[in-house]
Amino acid sequence: MDGIVGLGHFCETHGPCVILATQRCKEEPQQYPHNLTVPWCESCQSIDLDQSLVSKDESTCYVTTRTPLQQDLAFLLKQAAVRSLSCEETSKEGGTMYFGDNERGHVLSHTFALQDSLARGFHRKYSILILMRDKIHLLNCWPVLTKNIKEISSDLQSKAAEVNGVEQIQCPQRAVRQAQGSPNNPSRSLSQLTGEPAVFAHLHMWFTWLLSVESVVEKPSHAPEIPVSCSPAPLRSLFKQMDREVFRKVCYCVLTGIRMEAEDPEVLQVFQQLLPNKWSLPKSGEVCKLKKIEEKWMVEWSGCLPPKLPKLQTLTEEALQNDNLPEVALQPYLTGVILHWRNVARSLSWISTPNQELFQSLGVQKFDLPLLAYWTAQCRNELKA
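User: That's the sequence. What structure does it adopt?
Assistant: Structure tokens below.
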């Protein structure tokens, strides 16, 4: 993960400041760090300006210093610490938030408080900052980052609470404050607050892990195309123009694989929208001819309609004649119905001899078989292609 992980602290003397920063480098830096004036007191102490903590893997170094190695990044992280600790607050107890822009970088900030019997208000305020240039990547990583930085802060809080509990037993500070006022030198470092001398080395390892983990792999998405292209407006128009018997015969022949002929090929294309894309049309066998004579549609077909039509055709007719179903809803409805029966046909195409129990589980009735005979064959051709 490309970015910088930092630890910010609100010092009672110097205000918001960065006391630790971890970043990735191709190789171990030879110069530490830039000439940047940073606050320095017991509370702000972490590691010296000329020191660094370094971890390496096969191709990358993870370097922790008092401030980022580059002066421009140090300035941006300093700004982020100021906003996190004094401006962008979610609640008094702290919390996780996002802020930033393309100029100052995008920041994930988690503020938290550590108990300190010598501090004003008996607590000290810290924040873990993750600074990135890429907003999308930062927000994509949000779940795993927030989960782990909360664990880091909770670990620090539990250690500080343990130290504070021992101090309060030995010398309750609330009574001392009431009698004597504030202590003369309340500043203490994070290692003193947590009772962990190597706390900054541990933070280096935590921050290194955050930068090394690849929780989200961003790849271009190639969603499969929906194998149905149904435009309901021309289909509904033909439904209203044609006699019901003519429409039903044409629709039945198209859905069951009977060869169609028409003087206007575009009319057939409207009906063929009820078939999944790229299906081969029959080129032999009986023919159903569609003609328009004196503005009236006529059909010539030696066959006859069955007493009960396939369920797909019934649902299509019901949707087309439902004036309360607008075209914006009709299109996804018909697409879903066609895809359903395509999936039924595909399931049947995988089985050589389907039985009645399978038909029943798929919701197939006897009047659906003429349609499925054609559709199943088409699905088998798709599998071979």
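Residues 5 and 130 are 5 Å apart (CA to CA).
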